[in-house]
Amino acid sequence: MTVASTERRLARTATGDPLLGNDEGFILLTAADPSLTSVESALSRHPADLPDPGAVAARRLSPAHLSFAPPLDRPGKLFGIGLNYADHAADLDEDHPDEPASFFKPATALTGPGGPIRLPPTEITNHVTAEAELAVVIGRTCSDVPVDAVDSVIGGFVPVIDMTAEDVLRRNPRFLTRSKSFDTFLVMGSEIVVPDPGVDLDDVAVRTVVDDEVKAANTVANMHFSPRELVAFHSRVMTLEPGDVISTGTPGAHRIEPGDTVRAEVDGVGSVSADVVR
What we know:
Distance between the termini: 38 Å
Radius of gyration: 18 Å
CATH superfamily of the largest domain: Fumarylacetoacetase-like, C-terminal domain
Number of strands: 17
Structural class: mainly beta
CATH topology of the largest domain: Fumarylacetoacetate hydrolase, domain 2
Oligomer: single chain
Number of domains: 2
Strand content: 25-35%
Helix content: 10-25%
Number of helices: 6
């Protein structure tokens, strides 16, 4: 399953240069269109209006020779969704939710490919879990969007790793924001994949991988609320803006320790990994 047959990908180097690419590599975004000076500005374009990187006469940059920052320089609202896969909710003895269970993470929790994920001191938390997720990046300002019109406001998809201080959360469910908000507790992949309108996401598999061992896996078809439904739902609550990110939930979490390497794999979108330190 290919999420984006157009093969347009948006990224940002560690030095802040915005990039446009495909499977053959990247070019500077400004070389493709001088008016596009940031990834956020490109997200606001309809996918069909983005330049074709393969048709631009510019030097190709190989991902193997680049260091990447998070693709968004100034991320907007960062949503997380709890217990959105049926199997994960059942494992935790949770019922099917009637509405999405969402929360916010601060922009200061965001870090880029490689991380590292920095665990807080053990006196604060000694049980942190990592969770692979597919995230939706909003491309255009919108509100009250019907599900069948959501594709018109999606800018792209990106893999993320979400972290939770489980022992903090278990002390009191009201501590959810604190348990999710430590610095480096959201790792965002290097590339935002720009989708074709109407792409079928049901077969997209999401895997939580720790030290090269798959700890949890599931497909988007088994979500309680699909990515499109999550965008529509939250657009009825508040105005969504370019650079807002909705992480759509995890197939399962796994406890992490210093020395581990965590990877989120999302078929058709890519992967992101990070080392764990304290």
